[in-house]
From TrEMBL, chain A:
GO terms for biological process: intracellular protein transport. PANTHER family: AP COMPLEX SUBUNIT MU. It is found in: Cytoplasmic vesicle membrane; Golgi apparatus. The keyword Transport applies. The lineage of its organism: Eukaryota, Metazoa, Chordata, Craniata, Vertebrata. The keyword Iron does not apply. It comes from the Eukaryota. It comes from Daubentonia madagascariensis (Aye-aye). GO terms for cellular component: clathrin adaptor complex; cytoplasmic vesicle membrane; Golgi apparatus. Part of the AP-3 complex, an adaptor-related complex which is not clathrin-associated. The complex is associated with the Golgi region as well as more peripheral structures. It facilitates the budding of vesicles from the Golgi membrane and may be directly involved in trafficking to lysosomes. In concert with the BLOC-1 complex, AP-3 is required to target cargos into vesicles assembled at cell bodies for delivery into neurites and nerve terminals. This is AP-3 complex subunit mu-2.
UniProtKB/TrEMBL annotation, chain B:
It comes from Daubentonia madagascariensis. Residues 980-1090 form the Beta-adaptin appendage C-terminal subdomain domain. This is AP-3 complex subunit beta. GO terms for biological process: protein transport. Residues 1-11 have a biased composition (Polar residues). GO terms for cellular component: AP-3 adaptor complex; clathrin-coated vesicle membrane; Golgi apparatus. Residues 776-789 have a biased composition (Acidic residues). Residues 809-956 form the AP-3 complex subunit beta C-terminal domain. Gene3D superfamilies: Leucine-rich Repeat Variant (1.25.10.10). Transmembrane segments: none annotated. Residues 689-701, 717-730, 763-775 have a biased composition (Low complexity). InterPro entries: AP3_beta (IPR026740), AP3B1/2_C (IPR056314), AP3B1_Ser (IPR029394), AP3B_C (IPR029390), AP_beta (IPR026739), ARM-like (IPR011989), ARM-type_fold (IPR016024), B-adaptin_app_sub_C (IPR015151). Keywords: Cytoplasmic vesicle, Golgi apparatus, Membrane, Phosphoprotein, Protein transport, Transport. Its main location: membrane.
Amino acid sequence: MIHSLFLINSSGDIFLEKHWKSVVSRSVCDYFFEAQERATEAENVPPVIPTPHHYLLSVYRHKIFFVAVIQTEVPPLFVIEFLHRVVDTFQDYFGVCSEPVIKDNVVVVYEVLEEMLDNGFPLATESNILKELIKPPTILRTVVNTITGSTNVGDQLPTGQLSVVPWRRTGVKYTNNEAYFDVIEEIDAIIDKSGSTVTAEIQGVIDACVKLTGMPDLTLSFMNPRLLDDVSFHPCVRFKRWESERILSFIPPDGNFRLLSYHVSAQNLVAIPVYVKHNISFRDSSSLGRFEITVGPKQTMGKTIEGVMVTSQMPKGVLNMSLTPSQGTHTFDPVTKMLSWDVGKINPQKLPSLKGTMSLQAGASKPDENPTINLQFKIQQLAISGLKVNRLDMYGEKYKPFKGIKYMTKAGKFQVRT
Amino acid sequence: MSSNSFAYNEQSGGGEATELGQEATSTITISPSGAFGLFSSDLKKNEDLKQMLESNKDSAKLDAMKRIVGMIAKGKNASELFPAVVKNVASKNIEIKKLVYVYLVRYAEEQQDLALLSISTFQRALKDPNQLIRASALRVLSSIRVPIIVPIMMLAIKEASADLSPYVRKNAAHAIQKLYSLDPEQKEMLIEVIEKLLKDKSTLVAGSVVMAFEEVCPDRIDLIHKNYRKLCNLLVDVEEWGQVVIIHMLTRYARTQFVSPWKEDDGLEDNEKNFYESDDEQKEKTDKRKKTYAMDPDHRLLIRNTKPLLQSRNAAVVMAVAQLYWHIAPKSETGIISKSLVRLLRSNREVQYIVLQNIATMSIQRKGMFEPYLKSFYVRSTDPTMIKTLKLEILTNLANEANISTLLREFQTYVKSQDKQFAAATIQTIGRCATNISEVTDTCLNGLVCLLSNRDEIVVAESVVVIKKLLQMQPAQHGEIIKHMAKLLDSITVPVARASILWLIGENCERVPKIAPDVLRKMAKSFTSEDDLVKLQILNLGAKLYLTNSKQTKLLTQYILNLGKYDQNYDIRDRTRFIRQLIVPNEKSGALSKYAKKIFLAQKPAPLLESPFKDRDHFQLGTLSHTLNTKATGYLELSNWPEVAPDPSVRNVEVIELAKEWTPVGKAKKENSAKKFYSESEEDEDSSDSSSDSESGSGSESGERGESGEEGDSSEDSSSGQESESGSESGVEDERTAKRNSKPKGKSDSEDGEKENEKSKTSDSSNAESSSIEESSSDSESESDSESETESRRVTKEKGKKTKQDRNPLTKDVSLLDLDDFNPVSTPVALPTPALSPSLIADLEGLNLSTSSSVISVTAPVFVPMKTHVLLHRMSGKGLAANYYFPRQPCIFGDKMVSVQITLNNTTDQKIENIHIGGKKLPIGMQMHVFNPIDSLEPEGSITVSMGIDFCDSTQTASFQLCTKDDCFNVNIQPPVGELLLPVAMSEKDFKKEQGMLTGMNETSTVIITAPQNFTSSVILQKVVNVANVGAVPSGQDNIHRFAAKTVHSGSLMLVTVELKEGSTAQLIINTEKTVIGSVLLRELKPVLSQG
């Protein structure tokens, strides 16, 4: 399966290599660099690159290429999914996954990688188990380690791997037992010029933070489970119960995890909470263009829209922009031609707007297309699909846990064509 | 072995270590920043690393190792540190050890000789009671790619594959692949291990062993049959990575073993047609088809059991299920995968890329599947280009009359995209839609013509090319478009587009008679500066015009031909010459020139605008080969459905297997002594049955215990138990039988017996005596030709050393690599902390200590059940009946034998003469000492004889022939596991000590629930001794009952503990090195103890 792994930064340096079988020379990455050059943008580097003797499968995250070298036929998604799991694990361990962090923690990284794969086949990928094998570094632990000379390697061998519940470590103890669930929904939408919806769909996840003593068995039920059209579960969820009763029944892993992700059935009309009024025009003759956008609330169920952020990739011909926002701050990068406007909260009484002119390259013809506007926003205390958790029960343990449920709606890939 | 001294220093100098640790960390903070600038400084650094490794402080070593791992990670060469690093392999500090492992695995291949130094450490750790240590030892050992240790790896894998811990077995499965890649010659042996592991019922193992199967012997589909249903049923609980591998394998399997579920529709049609036909062949065919297709239940099982996995969070699993449905499910059921695949599109760019590729292939064949999700494939401006083009591809495939108008509107937005490459791709897409859906051809064409006035050249060029293709399909009245395009020649510069326009004009030169010559004139002017592609088309245009309109263009064409004649490109010179010969008539030109017009202006077939994914469907979906559209190394072809399904009964599993982790191997032949482990496991299913019989049959009799207790002695020697036997054997037996028949005794008796037993322990016997007996016993062994001389010598040697366990010869085999010369007979069980002990001398000392202090001796049985087993029924024995039972006495014929008493009865009215034992059919390693032939047996007479069988501590059947003068009868003796033991007496302290050494994998336990009245000590004692020939150990606590015994053949200890808990539960624990027997015994004891 996975032969070797190379970590390559954006400037093309291989800053970490790990081999699970015989050593593969790092010169194999030359093929990758070639492809990278051809692709011009990091995003366009093909995830699968064949070379004479190997195949390079890569993922690009946090400005790092994770390049896996394989030699024989293997489902490409297997490798890609695994690489993403590696990144997630690093993030989980170090808070962020970046080149300096990996370099600083190279030993832990190496130990983690060693545990995750055996002979290129995944061995322990559950973060609960990995954290028992190799303790994540914390500031306190680093200090303690320096003083006492002790280490990050767990001195007790984990038992979770061998238990019936491989995702949960045993012997969990908390003084405050609490379970939090965040229902987060994202709206993916394309809005056309005239403001009508081309496509819109809602994807949701339930992220959990469970800190409960012992081996609790939880059930979570919804008021309106029918809304959920397509779901995917954390392995802890008992599929049979869901099939028959539409109830989520599970023994949770310890700590943070994604319990469920779902898709709301397409029949339901998606409420679009914001609208964008825009007037962007380029004139053929003049070197000046007009730019004006206004953002306003649409169907918000009485909630405030926060964290609004507008970004747009302007055409190459735009040299600079002089704009005045009615609120928030804006920036325009003349090199990447990226305009971003951090709006903040939308006040329905006084709609935020951004007005001004664009200076265009002299002599250049007017762009065919107006730029697309990407929108980000957040609405607290609202699941836009109307999904509601009915109740959460715990079995198997005697104490009374503290339970909390939070709803939130966010923009996913929300685009307005102009 | 300087490591010893380290070990001691470590413990004493804790304070110093801290100081040094601080120092070392301060150095390390500097090192990562400086990129090891000069070579010289690099060398120097290594020098101080060596010093740190040699130091006796763990913290210094650790820092050194961390820096070394840092070097490895950066790809710097750290191989010269090998000798210094490998010394630390036995470090007690887990982190140092782990880092040394990392180092070893990386460099062992380069430093093979030195790497061997570390092997013995792993070999020892392989025997560690902790399963995680065993597993990690196996992992590292198998990762060291040194060919010399292949036999060691092989042995380790074999052992680990029979380990009780599923985690260790999982690692064994991984090791199989490693060994295979190191030495493919081991294939056959490895297949055997794979076969065994495939039978494993643990979900932990399933994924890994199937992976090994795919790597080593993917063609041995026959190994799957018996495990097919189990794999299907386990699938949901297997970890996600394993699921992917198993699903892919089962897809291939299903394609070879089931008939196609896709034929239903054809079948019906055929039936009607064939109704009127009469020839035999057709009839046969009809018959076959007539049987309405019924899906094999196993086929259905697979499809049903994989469905929940579509809900997995792992994209690879979802994709694997999707391809399974695509390749083996009935077409009507494939629809359910589309929703899940569309869900994956929310994931990362790379996942999207692969999933979209697969959807593209699927959507060519079955549009309907993804049509409802059309909008999910709409392109966003933020998508990377490769995703955009794939989405376009899918949109094209999904386009039909109903949705084309929506799509074209969407495409209009795309064409205007700032990403010009994408815009060009969209134009091609529009062209394809236009050809596929005739209703919109004109609309598309008009739209494309509009694009010709686009400012971007790439867009225009692409439009020209597409229009050319479209016009070629509809050559009629498009004069206007051609005129428009001719005008473009002035502005457009992209060669492909110019060439396309020229070709179009040439092809339609008769429709645009005025423009064409003018175009040629212009081209003639610019000929020299044109691209080669354009030049060729100019030549073509000239030739065509010459043929249709020679009056106007003759001179122009000749001018162009002259230019072409001296062109730099030989293709163009070549073409020029060819055209000249063909069209310009001269005396030399042959018959061809007459047909020149036909040649140049022939009707040309329109190009087919096809999806680039068209040819991918012969690859299995979801594979690397499919993604690359070339066959990747190791790609396994998906076979076509068989015409007739192979025999489905091969998947039937006859035995309802018990809740055992491992199951028996079928092949007894191949087994040799090294595989004793397996042969034991082979029979335990049966043994459990037979022994449960004996349990129920045995009565509450315990009278003779007193006597036997007196007989027994408790000398230190393990073989001394025989002594009591040798003299009074037969007499005692008779007495015993008589007693048993006469009076059943109560519970008080058994308590008495226990007291007696205790008393017996105090009695002594002289060493001299026992040693003489020992000699005689080995004599008798050689007499009975059962055992080879060397073996018996070894046995005696061992006895002399008083080691309690007979280690299998594995350790001996590999001892040549054991650089430290420690005794191969030593057992880790006897060592205090085997895996972590760095000091070999200490090991040896520990060994000596443990041997001298152990006080274990064989005692007489506490109880002998009267249960007899039928050896030969009188009906099948022509009047000769034979019964046997186990007297639970040490055997006089050999100290490894179990004694068996056979009672022969003559139920006929004639004498039976010359009763003897004929041919023996014994499993390898088993020995048998036969009774002396009986000359004659009177009618109604009966005689009891005794014989000895060495069962090799397994429950395998001993088959032999019981012969009379006239006949031979085949008979079998199969021992219940409880009879393979001899009771031993030991003190509670010794018991605890021994038990402490037999933890981890050597311990099996279970919980028993029964009514409290069953938990009186007498009842427990009675029940336990009923099942097994064990001796009671006096206990200081009321709630704990201990029993001890040793196995007859190898003398391994078998310690049974029953610990009463609150309420009506009790814990039953068995500690033994013979884990197989231990677990069988546990299984037998449990029901007996929980019985009311």
